[in-house]
Every structure is written in C-alpha cells, then in structure tokens.
Amino acid sequence: MLREVVLHGTAISANSLPYPLAGKTGTTNDFTDAWFVGFSPTLTCGVWMGSMKNGRSARKESGGHAALPLWIDFMKAALEGKDQGQFRLRLLLQHLPHRQRSTLPMLHRAMGKWH
Q1: What would the pLDDT profile of 65-95 be if each residue is shown by its tens digit?
Q2: Checking phi first, is residue 36 left (phi over 0); if not, alpha (psi -120 to 50) or beta?
Q3: Residue 32 has what DSSP assignment?
Q4: What is the C-alpha to C-alpha distance for residues 74 and 113, in angstroms, rounded to an integer?
Q5: Residue 21 CA: distances (Å) to CA of 27, 29, 40, 76
Q6: In the chain, where are the structural domains located?
Q7: How far apart are CA 33 and CA 49, in angstroms?
Q8: Helix or strand or coil: residue 22?
Q9: Are 33 and 23 within 8 A, CB to CB?
Q10: Which pLDDT value is given to residue 44?
C-alpha cells in the first residue's frame, strides 16, 4: 500500500528517484502540520513541517507539497552510491495469515520490480 503512494499517489514526485521507495504523506485538517515519512529497503526518514505555536501554515500546504521535496533531497543524497536493496515480499509472507494470502497478486503488482 505504501508503495502505491509513491507510484501513483500523493508522493508520486518521489518516484523520480532511482530507488525502491514507499511512504505516506500527511496533513492536519487545519494545515498546522504537514509531513512525509518514507523509506527505502535500507533507510527510513521522516520530515515534519509545522508551527510550534499552534498556528496555521501561512501557505496551507500539504505534506506532499511542503515536506516531500525536503525528503526527496535528503534521500537522494543519503542513498547516492549505496546499494539500493530490495523490498522483500518473502519477509511479509512469513507473518501473513493464510486467509490473507489471497491478496498476494495485488501485493506483487504493488511491489513492482522490487520484490
């Protein structure tokens, strides 16, 4: 599911990086806080932007527009020249109850070439 956020959702601009990535954008209803928490197979990073004084953001920006660009810049520098790793579907299967294994075709598609 979190791969889909990068592949087709609110974090699609992260898909410009040549690494397997996943994550979640977030914004409070009153635009006080915006964030993106994302990860590769080898690194997790979160970016939060907000007002410490409980005020609204002057721009009323979402996590995908405010926090995500900073996350992309960091991950680009942090992952450059390193082994990108792979998301491993097998690890998930070890903990997935048998009744939920019918979702495997969907999971396989969502993981794309990184399975």
Answers
A1: 889 999 999 999 999 998 878 777 655 555 5
A2: beta
A3: S
A4: 24
A5: 20, 26, 5, 11
A6: 2-86
A7: 6
A8: strand
A9: no
A10: 93
